[in-house]
Amino acid sequence: MAKEKKALSPMRRRVRMVFRLIFLLFLLTIILVGAVFFKVYGKEMIAWYEEANQIVAESSEGTFKQSLTSIVYDDKGEVLTTVKGDKDVYYVNIEQIPESVKAAMVSIEDKKFYRHNGIDMKAILRAVKALIVHHGGITQGASTITQQLSRNIFLSTEVSYERKIKEIFISLALEKRYTKDQILEFYLNNIYFGNGYYGIEAASQGYFSKSVTELTLGEITFLCAIPNNPTLYDPMVSPENTVKRKDRILKQMYEDGKLTDNQYENALAEDITLNVKQKKKQNYLETYAYNCAIRAIMKQRGFEFRYSYYSVEDEEAYDESYNEMYKECQQALYTGGYRIYTSLNLKKQKQLQKSVDEALKDFDEKEEDGTYKMQGAATCIDNETGKVVAIVGGRSQKNDGYTLNRAYQSFRQPGSSIKPLIVYTPVFERGMTPSSIVDDVKTKDGPKNSNGSYEGKINIRRAVASSKNTVAWSLFEDLTPQIGLNYLLEMNFTKIETRDYTPSAALGGFTTGVSTVEMASAYATIENDGVYREATCIQKITDAGGNEIIGAASFDERKVYEDNAARMSISVMESVMKEGTGASLKLDDMSCAGKTGTTNDKKDGWFVGFTPYYTTSVWVGYDKPKSVDDLTGASYPGSIWKNFMETIHEELENVEFPKYEGEEIKIPQKEEKKEEEEIELEISPEPIETPEPIETPEVPEDENDYGEDPNQDYGEDPNADPGIPADEGDTGDNADWTEDDMISDTP
User: Fold this and answer.
1) Beta sheet of 374-382, edge-to-edge order
2) What is the mean pLDDT of the chain?
3) Hey, how many other C-beta atoms are within 10 angstroms of the C-beta on 592?
4) When comparing pLDDT for 640 and 672, which is higher?
5) Distance CA 605, CA 626 (A)
6) pLDDT reported for residue 545
7) What does the DSSP assignment read for 217-241?
8) What does DSSP say about strands 79-83 and 70-73: parallel, antiparallel, or unpaired?
9) Whole-angstrom Cα distance, residue 745 to residue 494?
10) pLDDT(689) > 70
11) How far apart are CA 141 and CA 139, in angstroms?
């Protein structure tokens, strides 16, 4: 006989009733919220749903094989170079892909791949919960393999609710049109494996120089570790991270029953050795154009560039976000079909390269890989537009191609060439003039002048022309480093660090240094009546259909110096060319102004100068800093500058610089034998992989000279080219970098 149901107690009936009411209220709330949501967003949702179905309906297998080529044009509209992914070359069918590749990707990326209809509702609900917990921050992607494919092919990687909803609709449509094997095939051929490799076969050829069918289990899981975060798991930069994720994938496969004990243990113990396939290296124009284009796309997608930080942690967080966005936009450059119109001029580029090569031709010592040890870099800007027209990142070498683009990736001590930017133009804004009298005297804690002599009372014009260290130091102390260095931050100098805020910065004493692009842009700012224009070669970028997506308004422009102060600075730098340290560099029949710079022990030489038409900055030195007996700002850098500038001004009519308000009649100063060049402060010689802490330089009382920090690192800017190892970028070694590394600058 069946048991009678036990009667519920009054208390339990009340509790059950309360829970039923709560559940009903919860359902009513969901229905109400859904109704409100549909009323507000219903039309958009329907439109997105219909759009998704149309996109997928119009797709074919060829849709997942194409790679749109981006084209870069020079200033004449001629094709300069092209860049594209290589997935069309290395596309492999599902039958050719090893089972272990499929198993690895499904185990680590989407365990329910063969059971869901394109989306994983539980994962989406977890993401919604995380969204609520994190007060609106999107912290979990909840993306299936199908969703990732939808995003990679049909959508951008922008993090937004609209994109996520579209992604879901497209995924559902894909699952209706294509089989699971087709979707997995499309996915494995389109996913990004870092360093310019799209698809599993391209990655296999690139990292191991063999087909995916020839890979071991360890090598397969090593590759499958990369796509989750191509920056974090980049095998060229952080192989230890790649190996850790490889081991995690193996564990997942083992727990899923896809590996035997022996397979699992052997793959864990396997030593992974890369055999990177050599790629054609780009020249200096190409690497700079790619870097500028990527940064322009980053800005267009909403990335906010920064040049100062609250703390080390703040800077590290920024660098991480920069690198992520840089990689994303770099991928877009490979496959987006952009049309990139630049200001780069091939004729001027050839002349600038020729000038660098000829000036340094007697230095034939090379590294083991064939790279010249003595190097030079230069950047030329058109003063009318503020755009870069020529850029040289090193000496040309036919046998090895080009590697590091020192013009924008390397940073060196600027010596006295920094003085007009952070000392003299700022003090002109605060009431001083070229005729203001200053004291050229030796002080206990200050620097010495290069020739060891001091003139006492002189005017600022003479102090600049003769590059008086004592005067610059004293004025900078009164101005304060905080005020002086802020001018560099306003002009987007990327390497101004906390330890730079000392009086030694007045003489070019920086922790890391500056690049030729930064210096050219800053001097062009002075020539442009103090109006800064962002240093770039990009004029505009369109999509493949010719629709402009980035134009002139996309680039920074701001007032940095007052008009009259800038004109005073031009006037005193004209004196440098007429009667000062740059007197031997004066151009024939063309107004010119400029400033020399040389570091202690003659390890870095600079000359930065301009005419009303062009501004050019030049650096010369060893990649691994080394003294050069006859290196001064006026020697090799100066000769490069003069040779190049004379050539590009041959057909141009002389134009005078504008006079500043209240320009005085020059009073002759005390005669002195011209010094060919001043010797300035240097913080650091030999680079190492990880910089050691640098203390504020102290001036010995007996000589008032400056010592050196043997642990200084001269590195490339991580914000310009993420992915290039610091030790390789710093020294200029011709390492086995990939095309992805060289499209740059990570920050």
Assistant:
1) 387-392, 374-382, 614-622, 604-610, 593-598
2) 84
3) 26
4) 640
5) 11
6) 80
7) HHHHHHHHTSTT-TTTT-TTT-HHH
8) antiparallel
9) 12
10) no
11) 7
CB contact at 8 A, 175 and 183: yes
CB neighbour list of residue 533: distance below 8 Å, 6 or more residues apart: 385, 386, 387, 521, 524, 525, 555, 556, 557
For 218-245, how does the pLDDT look when each residue is reduced to its tens digit (9 = 90+)?
Answer: 999 999 999 999 889 999 989 999 999 9
Both tokens of 631, joined, read: 């290196």
pLDDT of residue 718: 38
Token digits of residue 146: 């199908």
Lowest-confidence region among 227-236, 329-338, 656-665, 675-684: 675-684
Question: Which of 248, 258, 223 has the alpha carbon at shortest distance from 90?
Answer: 223
Which residue has tokens 């796509």?
Answer: 227
Q: Identity (one letter) of the amino acid at 274?
A: L
Dist CA 542 CA 520 (whole Å): 27
The whole-angstrom separation of Cα 329 and Cα 331 is: 5
The answer to whether residue 711 scores a pLDDT higher than 80 is no
Q: Closest by alpha carbon to 723, among 699, 701, 696, 745?
A: 745
Average pLDDT over residues 487-513: 96
Residue 621 near residue 566 (C-beta atoms within 8 A): no
Q: What are the tens digits of pLDDT across the range 244-259?
A: 999 999 999 999 999 9
Least confident piece of the model among 252-256, 612-616, 631-635, 694-698: 694-698
Q: What distance in Å separates the CA atoms of residue 29 and residue 86, rounded to the nearest whole number?
A: 51
For residues 306 and 556, the answer to whether their CB atoms sit within 8 Å is no
- What SS3 class is residue 598? strand
Catalytic annotation present for 562: no
The whole-angstrom distance between residue 108's C-alpha and the CA centroid of its chain comes to: 31
Tokens 């919960």 sit on residue: 129
pLDDT tens track for 264-293: 999 999 999 999 876 666 789 999 999 999
Residue 675 has pLDDT above 60, yes or no: no
Q: What is the pLDDT of residues 338-348, one digit of tens each?
A: 999 999 999 99
| Range of weakest confidence among 39-53, 248-262, 371-385 | 39-53
Task: Pick the closest to residue 492 from 430, 541, 558, 426 (CA basis).
Answer: 558
Is there a contact between 524 and 533 (Cβ–Cβ < 8 Å)? yes
C-alpha 241: how far from its chain's center?
22
- Rg (alpha carbons) of the chain, rounded to whole number: 31
pLDDT value, residue 198: 86
Of the candidates 67, 416, 474, 639, the residue annotated as catalytic is 416
- C-alpha to C-alpha distance for 383 and 565, rounded to whole angstroms: 18
- What residues does 81 pair with on adjacent strands? 72
pLDDT exceeds 60 at position 487: yes
Check if the beta carbon of residue 458 is closer than 8 Å to that of residue 572.
no
Parallel/antiparallel/unpaired status of strands 339-342 and 70-73: parallel
**In the chain, pLDDT over 70 holds for what percent of residues?**
81
109 is catalytic: yes
- CA dist 585 and 576 (Å) reads 10
**How far is the C-alpha of 336 from the C-alpha of 83, rounded, in Å?**
10
Question: Are 737 and 404 contacting, i.e. CB atoms less than 8 angstroms apart?
Answer: no
| 744/741 Cα distance (integer angstroms) | 7
Look up tokens 């013009």; give the residue. 407
Of the candidates 59, 109, 675, 680, the residue annotated as catalytic is 109
Per-residue burial over 510-540, b = 16 or more CB atoms within 10 Å of its CB, e = otherwise: bbbbbbbbbbbbbbbbbbbbbbbbbbbbbbb
- Reference 285, options 274, 276, 277, 293; nearest CA is 293
Q: Are 417 and 679 in contact (CB under 8 A)?
A: no
Could you tell me if 383 and 615 are in contact, meaning their C-beta atoms sit under 8 angstroms apart?
A: yes
Handedness of CA 344, 345, 346, 350 (dihedral sign): negative
H or E stretch at 640: helix 636-648
Backbone dihedral region for residue 213 (phi beyond 0: left; psi -120 to 50: alpha; all else: beta) = alpha
